[in-house]
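About this split. The held-out portion is used to measure sequence recovery: a designer receives only the structure tokens and must propose an amino acid at every position. Recovery is the fraction of positions where the proposal matches the reference. Here is one held-out target exactly as it appears in the evaluation file.
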């Protein structure tokens, strides 16, 4: 038996939930992170000889809690944590229901209104979902050094302000919901299209986001929660068709639609129906409606681009961001031609964040490729290539560049 591979698999499977529970038990992010690492170090030392325990997550939680209490004693902070060090055995609740609820507790703690919005998003992505600082920075279009400082400040604010580790009550939930939904969707997006590395998709990260959204829907069955569920399900239905046999990126118009997961599509459309029945229609429901137009069409050419443009216009009125304007421009180009889309993209160049976004230049490159001349397309592809570190996207952009070079000979 390959114990190293087993422990690595269990780390991927359980580490974030174990951390969520250790934060509750120890009351400190950094202490819980240290305890998590020590628990897995103990597992590496003990499990090869003793075997993997029947309930590895519970073993890791108990071991981590003990190591955390030892840290408190060594740091001579026992008076501040008397409830933790009064006994050699962990006294806090480790029942299954409580442990299952811990990821939601962590989610709402990280998204507490006592934190600035950018701190809420960054802290949740980094601490709850285990994204690296660089991945979080890419997701938020920010510099890694500044993002790292923001995360440190957020941890201190949680500790110093005594932000409770709990799911808010029914009166507070609606007000807290938009920030939580945004974080869940950012987590899903990082799994659905990783910002860096050799793999396009991290299924475990996407599954984590989808599971959180389902738990949230049980807690708060509102329209936008179902809208987010629909959006994630409809995107996830296309997951297997987004990569070729060698791991290369396959754009939507080139995907084999026979590989789309019909059950996922059915479930996503059902969630969309639930969302549309609960007014008002919010941004996630509008995005899910756009995704629904794609999955209903038999091909890119058969897609109702006019309706998609209309939906993007409604979305932009609610959230006037340059990224939504970019997506609208791409849809307009499909409806009215690449020249019209290029004019819309030119209007976005005043936004500093968008001109450093690789998909902006990839969109420009594609429209120039369709409209000509090839020189403008080549320059835009090269700019997009310089701005992305995700290998499947890099291979796709390099392929497009090679195709341009071949066609211009």
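Reference sequence for scoring:
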């Amino acid at each position: 038996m390959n114990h190293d591979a087993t422990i690595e698999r269990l780390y991927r499977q359980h580490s974030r939930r174990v951390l969520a529970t250790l934060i509750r038990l120890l009351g400190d992010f950094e202490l819980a992170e240290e305890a998590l690492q020590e628990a897995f170090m103990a597992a590496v030392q003990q499990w090869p000889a003793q075997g993997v325990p029947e309930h590895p997550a519970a073993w890791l939680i108990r071991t981590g809690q003990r190591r955390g209490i030892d840290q408190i004693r060594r740091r001579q902070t026992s008076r501040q944590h008397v409830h933790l060090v009064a006994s050699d055995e962990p006294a806090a609740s480790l029942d299954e229901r409580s442990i299952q609820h811990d990821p939601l507790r962590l989610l709402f703690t990280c998204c507490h209104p006592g934190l600035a919005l950018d701190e809420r998003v960054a802290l949740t992505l980094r601490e709850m979902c285990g994204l690296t600082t660089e991945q979080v920075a890419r997701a938020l279009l920010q510099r890694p050094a500044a993002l790292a400082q923001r995360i440190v400040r957020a941890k201190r604010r949680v500790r110093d302000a005594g932000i409770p580790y709990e799911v808010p009550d029914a009166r507070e939930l609606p007000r807290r919901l938009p920030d939580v939904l945004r974080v869940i969707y950012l987590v899903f997006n990082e799994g659905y299209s990783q910002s860096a590395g050799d793999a396009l998709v991290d299924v475990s990260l996407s599954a984590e986001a989808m599971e959180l959204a389902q738990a949230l829907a049980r807690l708060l069955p509102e329209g936008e929660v179902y809208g987010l569920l629909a959006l994630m399900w409809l995107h996830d239905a296309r997951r297997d068709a987004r990569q070729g046999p060698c791991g290369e990126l396959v754009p939507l118009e080139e995907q084999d639609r026979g590989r789309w997961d019909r059950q996922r599509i059915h479930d996503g459309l059902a969630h969309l129906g639930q969302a549309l029945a609960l007014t008002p229609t919010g941004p996630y429901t509008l995005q899910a409606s756009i995704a629904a137009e794609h999955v209903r069409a038999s091909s890119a050419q058969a897609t109702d681009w006019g309706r998609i443009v209309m939906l993007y216009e409604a979305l932009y009125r609610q959230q006037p961001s340059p990224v939504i304007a970019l997506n609208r421009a791409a849809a307009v180009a499909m409806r009215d031609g690449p020249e019209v889309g290029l004019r819309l993209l030119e209007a976005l160049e005043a936004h500093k964040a968008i001109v450093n976004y690789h998909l902006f230049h990839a969109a420009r490159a594609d429209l120039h490729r369709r409209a000509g001349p090839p020189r403008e397309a080549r320059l835009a592809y090269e700019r997009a290539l310089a701005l992305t570190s995700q290998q499947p996207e890099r291979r796709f952009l390099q392929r497009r560049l090679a195709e341009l070079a071949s066609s211009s000979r």
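Annotator remark: Strands lie at 196-197, 389-390.
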